[in-house]
Amino acid sequence: MTLDINRLLSIANAGQSRWELDNVVWNERTTDPETLVKFLTRIEQLESLTDISEHHASELAILKELANNMDQAECEALLATDDETAQSQFIEKIARRGALETLCNNKISMETMTLMCKLNPNDFILSAKRSQDIINAIRELVIQGETLSTDVAGA
């Protein structure tokens, strides 16, 4: 029996899945204004294509579905970015970055620490605490995963 390569290639999904677009590529569209703007811009780019490929048409349909599940008022509030919102978004972003660096490199980079040190003392404490909370949550999930995987063959 010979492999029908043309048939396999014709049915292969060349694009990203709905799950990947929702949970990986555009995951922060509801919490990060930059990501939301890029998400909306991508929809506009796809809509402006005159000769749209099947792959792009599929992506556009998925992105429109994701967009239609979003709340207009929440999007407007996210994009309005008053000082308080901008402050909390920056603290969250720098805390996540610090947590990832700590987990991956066992230390915070000079660049991240320099940014954190520019914050006022209260914001520095908030970012450090949030970073530690993220680290603790990830470590706890790993421990839970290891506990669960002891019952799985081959894990």
Describe this structure in a few short sentences.
This protein is an all-alpha fold.
What structural keywords apply?
2 domains; mainly alpha; extended; 0% strand; 155 residues
Describe the structure.
The chain is mainly alpha-helical and 155 residues long. The protein folds into two domains: 14-77; 81-149. 74% of the residues lie in helices and 0% in strands. The chain has helices at residues 5-11, 18-25, 33-48, 54-68, 72-80, 83-105, 110-117, 121-149. α3 (33-48) crosses α4 (54-68) and α6 crosses α8 (121-149). The longest helix has 29 residues, at 121-149. The protein is extended and about 65 Å long. The chain starts with a helix and ends in a 6-residue tail after the last helix.
Task: Detail the topology: elements first, then pairings.
Blueprint: H1 5-11, H2 18-25, H3 33-48, H4 54-68, H5 72-80, H6 83-105, H7 110-117, H8 121-149
Helix pairs in contact: 3-4, 6-8
Largest sheet: none
State the end-to-end distance: 35 Å
In percent terms, what proportion of residues is strand? under 5%
SSE pattern, N- to C-terminal: HHHHHHHH
